[in-house]
Amino acid sequence: MELITPSKKSLRLLINERTQKWLETQTTPLRTLMAYYRCAIMEIETKFNVLNEQFSLKHDRNPIASVKSRLKSMESIAEKLQRKNLPLSCEAIENNINDVAGIRVVCSFTDDVYMLADAFIKQDDITLIEIKDYIQTPKPGGYRSLHLIVEVPIFLADEKRQMRAEIQMRTIAMDFWASLEHQLLYKKDVPNVEEISKELKLCAEESANLDKRMSEIKQKIIPND
Question: How far apart are CA 98 and CA 8, in angstroms?
Answer without folding.
Answer: 26
